[in-house]
């Protein structure tokens, strides 16, 4: 096999062109929401359009300055998703206020959160000049993850919303620390597994064909995982426990190259799912709603409404502002994929799923081409958790799998999700900049001769 | 570590293909069945908002569609 020659190319021009397209998608979506709902282009289109353009130009310039070799496709994909999400949240604000003028509007706060997310994105690219620096903070991130997960359980700041105690309310702002904990855990797993991968893969004894690692190698990571999943079960946030578990198993598999971990993980997941079904009433409700939603139309109103919306959208959709996605409860957050499917149709929903797929596979490509093990593991972990999250939430809404509460990255209303997903993209771009950057030239030894003290010949 | 990463990448591809196939199933194959279900508010609203035209007697309308508040 010949080794392909890698020519470092920045491709910032391509990124700029794609970003212009992505910004256009966002602005056009916003304008067509106004045309669909009120018959006129919204008067503040310039506001959202201006904000999107400022955001796009600012992020592009930051990347040119601090990560010139970063992957050129990720930023435009993310801007397109974020712009579409903003337009849809604005559209649902209008639709929901037609039903009841008292209902809260989310578009403006979502715009503010997007700005915060972009500041986080730029901050990561500027502050973290080399992702390997994060490896020195492995245990700090592990502790931070557990701390973040405990926050909602503390009295005073923790709050239970819709049966899940996963919110923290400080100074009137509410956020879900679980989103940040996911990123911290990915960094912790990556840093820990890089050091211990050989010990995990090779030391230990073999039981019925499976190599079991030594307890002291697996101990800390298993403890961290148990604590995080235990907390999530206490908080009734099963979507996130599934996500963390998947992240854990896959990173273990990537680090040790042992497919046995996937088998063990699958068995554990099956046992956990059965236990959840037997022990928790709400898991049973979700599962039964997935098998046959129409058996109890009153209880399963949300998923049924989502399906009706999707079917009503059909192949080409009702058009932005012309369907009735506001009939579905939580159409702006959990069910935003169904709202997209109703108004943009099968075509639009498939385009959105493809955008997510491209983000994930670009992330996997970064993991493949990365030269250091820590970056590989971190990129693979982040990309996989992103894929799993999209699969669980979009699959849940379209009744491919039982519904679990997770946010749709970049589109669903919710500050912490938008901010942390921008942070994930910042980390991926940082790793890819390191990966695609040409290796520093090593000066030839010829010039060293002049400094020779001892003459050899 | 490249082999597991490649496998995971293919697995992710399979997840997304499953999402795409399922979207086609719901929005194309099942669409007619879902649209004809009882209690589908979207279809009912669509029927109500259809303009039926006036009933004319000698060219004068005796019954017209009037916009309702619902």
The count of helical stretches of chain A stands at 14
Cα-atom radius of gyration of chain A: 24 Å
Topology order of chain A in helix (H) and strand (E) letters = HHHHHEEEHEEHHHHHHHH
What's the helix count of chain B? 3
What overall geometry of chain B do the principal axes of the alpha carbons give?
A: rod-shaped
CA-CA gap between termini of chain A: 42 Å
SSE succession of chain B: HHHEE
> Low-confidence spans of chain B: pLDDT under 50, at least 5 residues?
none
Determine the N-to-C terminus distance of chain B: 61 Å
Determine the structural class of chain B based on helices, strands and strand pairing. mainly alpha
Helix percent band of chain A? 55-70%
Report the major sheet of chain B: 2 strands, antiparallel
Structure description:
By secondary structure, chain A is mainly α. Chain A has 14 helices and five strands. A three-stranded antiparallel β-sheet of chain A has the order 1-2-3, with no helix packed on it. In chain A, helix 7 (215-234) runs antiparallel to helix 8 (238-256). The model of chain A has no long low-confidence stretch (mean pLDDT 87). By secondary structure, chain B is mostly helical. In chain B, 59% of the residues lie in helices and 10% in strands. Chain B has three helices and two strands. Chain B has helices at residues 2-29, 31-35, 41-48, and strands at residues 55-57, 60-63. A two-stranded antiparallel sheet of chain B has the order 1-2.
Show the helix and strand layout.
The complex is a heterodimer of chains A (457) and B (70).
Chain A: H1 12-38, H2 45-66, H3 74-99, H4 107-127, H5 138-150, E1 158-161, E2 164-170, E3 173-175, H6 177-202, E4 205-207, E5 210-212, H7 215-234, H8 238-256, H9 260-279, H10 281-291, H11 301-313, H12 336-369, H13 373-397, H14 415-436
Antiparallel strand pairs in A: 1-2, 2-3, 4-5
Helix pairs in contact in A: 1-2, 1-3, 2-3, 2-4, 3-4, 3-12, 4-14, 5-6, 5-7, 6-8, 6-13, 6-14, 7-8, 8-9, 8-13, 9-10, 11-12, 12-13, 12-14, 13-14
Chain B: H1 2-29, H2 31-35, H3 41-48, E1 55-57, E2 60-63
Antiparallel strand pairs in B: 1-2
């Amino acid at each position: 096999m010949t080794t392909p020659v890698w020519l470092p190319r920045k491709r910032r021009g391509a990124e700029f062109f794609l970003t212009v397209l992505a910004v256009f998608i966002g602005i056009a979506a916003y304008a067509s929401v106004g045309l669909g709902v009120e018959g006129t282009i919204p008067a503040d289109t310039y506001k959202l359009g201006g904000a999107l353009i400022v955001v796009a130009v600012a992020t592009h310039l930051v990347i040119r300055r601090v990560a010139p070799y970063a992957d050129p496709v990720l930023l435009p994909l993310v801007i397109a998703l974020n712009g579409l999400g903003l337009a849809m949240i604005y559209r649902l604000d209008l639709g929901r206020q037609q039903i009841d003028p008292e209902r809260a509007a989310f578009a403006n706060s979502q715009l503010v959160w997007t700005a915060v997310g972009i500041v986080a994105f730029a901050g990561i690219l500027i502050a973290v000049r080399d992702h390997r620096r994060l490896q020195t903070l492995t245990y700090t991130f592990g502790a931070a993850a557990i701390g973040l997960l405990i926050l909602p359980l503390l009295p005073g700041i923790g709050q239970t919303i819709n049966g899940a105690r996963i919110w923290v309310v400080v100074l009137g702002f509410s956020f879900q620390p679980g989103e940040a904990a996911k990123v911290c855990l990915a960094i912790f797993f990556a840093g820990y597994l890089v050091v211990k991968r050989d010990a995990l893969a090779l030391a230990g004894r073999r039981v019925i064909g499976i190599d079991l690692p030594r307890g002291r190698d697996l101990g800390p990571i298993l403890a961290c995982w148990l604590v995080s999943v235990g907390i999530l079960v206490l908080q009734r946030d099963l979507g996130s426990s599934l996500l963390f578990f998947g992240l854990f198993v896959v990173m273990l598999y990537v680090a040790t190259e042992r497919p046995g971990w996937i088998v063990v993980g699958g068995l554990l997941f099956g046992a956990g799912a059965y236990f959840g079904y037997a022990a928790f009433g709400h898991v049973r409700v979700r599962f039964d709603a997935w098998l046959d939603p129409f058996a109890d139309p009153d209880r399963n109103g949300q998923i049924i409404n989502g399906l009706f919306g999707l079917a009503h959208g059909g192949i080409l959709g009702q058009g932005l502002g012309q369907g009735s996605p506001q009939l579905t409860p939580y159409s702006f957050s959990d069910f935003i994929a169904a709202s997209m499917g109703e108004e943009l149709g099968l075509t639009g929903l498939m385009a959105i799923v493809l955008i997510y797929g491209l983000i994930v596979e670009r992330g996997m490509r970064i993991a493949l081409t990365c030269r250091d093990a820590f970056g590989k593991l971190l990129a693979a972990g982040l990309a996989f958790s992103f894929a799993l999250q999209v699969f669980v939430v979009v699959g849940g809404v379209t009744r491919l799998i039982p519904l679990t509460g997770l946010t749709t990255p970049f589109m669903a209303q919710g500050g912490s999700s938008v901010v942390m997903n921008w942070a994930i993209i910042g980390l991926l771009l940082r790793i890819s900049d390191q990966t695609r950057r040409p290796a520093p030239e090593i000066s030839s030894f010829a010039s060293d001769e002049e400094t020779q003290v001892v003459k050899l010949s | 570590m490249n082999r597991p990463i490649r496998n995971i990448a293919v697995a992710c591809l399979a997840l997304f293909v499953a999402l795409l196939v399922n979207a086609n199933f719901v929005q194309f194959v099942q669409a007619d069945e879902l649209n004809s279900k009882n209690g589908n508010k979207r279809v009912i609203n669509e029927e109500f908002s259809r303009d039926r035209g006036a009933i004319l007697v000698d060219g004068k309308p005796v019954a017209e569609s009037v916009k309702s508040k619902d």
